[in-house]
Amino acid sequence: NSFFVMTNIIKTENQLEQRCPEYPSGKAICSSDKSCEKGSVDIHSHGIQTGRCVNYNATVKTCEVNAWCPVESTEKPPEPAVLRRSEDFTVLIKNNIHFPKFNYTILNVPANLNTSCTYNKITSPLCPIFRLGDILQEAKENFSEVAVKGGIIAIEINWDCNLDSFHDCSPKYGFRRLDDKKIKPGFQFRYARYYKLPNGKEQRTLFKVYGIRFDVLVFGTGRKFNGVELIKNIGSMISYFGLVVTAIEIALCLGNCSRCSKSPFYKIYNRKKYETLLNPRQVMYVSYVDEPHVILIKQPLKTSLQHAQGSIVESHPVKFRDAGGCCTSESSENLDNEEYELGRPLRRGASSPHCQKWCCCGNCQPTEKYHEQLCCRRKEGPCITTSHWFLQLVLSSHTLKKALLYKDPFLNLTDGNINNQLRHLAYKQYVHWRFGSFDLEDRAVIPSCCRWKIRDTYPKAGNNYTGFKME
Questions:
Q1: pLDDT band for position 314 (50/70/90)?
Q2: How many CB atoms lie within 10 A of CB 471?
Q3: Which of 166, 222, 224, 332 has the smallest number of CB atoms closer than 10 Å to its CB?
Q4: 391 and 339 in contact (C-beta within 8 Å)?
Q5: For residues 20-42, b (16+ Cβ closer than 10 Å) or e, as one string?
Q6: What secondary structure letter does DSSP report for 236?
Q7: CA atoms of 105 and 163, how far apart (whole Å)
Q8: By percentage, how much of the chain surpasses pLDDT 90?
Q9: What Cα–Cα distance (Å) separates residue 470 from each residue in 185, 276, 312, 359?
Q10: What is the per-residue burial (b if ≥16 Cβ within 10 Å, else e) of 381-394?
Q11: Distance (Å, rounded) from C-alpha 419 to C-alpha 458?
Q12: Rounded mean pLDDT of 128-136?
């Protein structure tokens, strides 16, 4: 958490929305109207230039602007600070810390707190009431100097707790400055108070406030004796002294002659010592529309991929590649009848959650292969293929063709083989949309409902599809 204490202020009163000379700084100073460009806005200006060069005072001319007038002065903040006596303010900081592993919670405010105490590193190190001037002194800063332009100070609460029977769990406080006082010191912001004049016009008073922001940073470490862990560690240490095994290994290696290698004991020993390596385990990645994760599932499958147990590998990063993104920003009028763009309705299988036990959306096609028995959802609900974004990001021929032309500007879109390219690109679009990366393309499994939706939209001659290849 943080809290802010105001120490200095610049006030600009009675501002009205009208025309007035800009504050004389940088490009605002002019000699004639030619120096002022009508409608121009500088990053440091207070308004929009009118194109006129007017008198700011008797000696200086500046460009006239439409702004809240009179404009704010960019002079340095008052010195000494207006509220420099705020160093005598005190603040009570309450902080409780919880160690869930040990079910232990503690507060930094003692039960018998002396409300008249003030923190002192030597005499009252546990008092949670701090004088602001003392905080800056502990941070090796002068409050009067910091109060002019403000600053950012960290109040660090460090808990180092021994949670055994005779526990010791007390906070230690530390203080340091966070902003760089050499490069860009200070902390300030503006706010305004608005008023309504009798004539109906709006008037305001602008405040540029300087002050010190105190950031409370909490760190904690808890320790507790655990006999079980101690025994485990002792057992681990003893294992290092298993010299008997080493000695047997050496003896067997030295006695590895042709006569010994034929003995039954040596054969049994070799079978126990060496494990036959099988092929690397195959892995697949799946993503459900109703779960925010990508799931890793290992082969071999003993049931449908939909019901296979896996592990979460990352949070779901929903994004798609730039070529598709630039296309989807256009009007969606061309997408209204996208489902029938090729002149044929999509496949309407007889599948349903009742006949396909692994399907939760009702649009999956029957298959005997476990690794193809995957739905777009983990729980029952609407199919992702019915969503607007599936149509726009995956099925839209307008989007896919633009993506193909982005890669090959001279591609012939009237080629009879264009359906194959559109279908494969639609697969990639789905993988990038639901898995967030093309890196998983070879291992990412597209749900049955989505795969057949794409195939029906961009069919292959003869309907001879290879499916997901298991290497």
A1: low
A2: 7
A3: 166
A4: yes
A5: bbbbbeebbbbeeeebbeeeeeb
A6: H
A7: 11
A8: 43
A9: 61, 22, 21, 22
A10: eebbbeeeebbbbb
A11: 5
A12: 95
Cα torsion at 190, 196, 197, 199 (round to 10°)? 130
Each residue of 241-289: pLDDT tens digit? 777 677 777 776 666 555 555 667 667 777 777 766 555 567 888 999 9
Residue 346 has pLDDT above 60, yes or no: no
Residue type, 84: R
Nearest to 281 by CA among 298, 256, 264: 298
Between the two ends of the chain, the Cα-to-Cα distance in Å is: 54
Q: Give bridge partners of residue 177 from the DSSP assignment.
A: 153
Nearest to 291 by CA among 360, 357, 377: 377
Instruction: State whether the Cα torsion 441-444-449-455 is positive or negative.
Output: positive
Residue with token string 């042709």: 258
Packing angle between helix 418-435 and helix 448-457, nearest 10 degrees? 150
Residue holding tokens 């530390």? Answer: 174
Question: In angstroms, what CA-CA distances link 114 with 108, 134, 174?
Answer: 13, 18, 21
> What does the alpha-carbon distance between residue 349 and residue 73 come to, in Å, rounded to a whole number?
74
Map out the domains of the chain as residue ranges. Answer: 84-223, 227-273, 283-463
Report whether 152 contacts 178 (CB < 8 A). yes
What are 233's two structure tokens? 């560690």
Distance CA(140)–CA(13), nearest Å, equals 37
3-state secondary structure of 289: coil
Exposure on the CB side of residue 291, measured as CA atoms within 13 A: 16
- What's the gap between Cα 213 and its chain centre? 25
The domain defined by 84-223 folds into atp-gated p2x4 ion channel fold (2.60.490)
**What residues does 131 pair with on adjacent strands?**
90
DSSP three-state, residue 433: helix
What pLDDT digit, counting tens, does each position of 355-374 carry?
578 999 999 999 888 888 99
Note the pLDDT tens digit of each residue in 216-229. 999 988 888 888 88
Length of the chain: 471
Determine the Cα–Cα distance for residues 426 and 451; give it in Å rounded to an integer. Answer: 9
Name the band, by pLDDT with cuts 50, 70 and 90, for residue 63. very high
Residue 39 pLDDT level (bands cut at 50, 70, 90): very high
CB-based contact 275:262 (threshold 8 Å) = no
Output the CA torsion 15→20→24→25 (10° steps): 80
Q: What is the pLDDT of residue 7?
A: 95
Task: Give the residue carrying structure tokens 């003896």.
Answer: 251
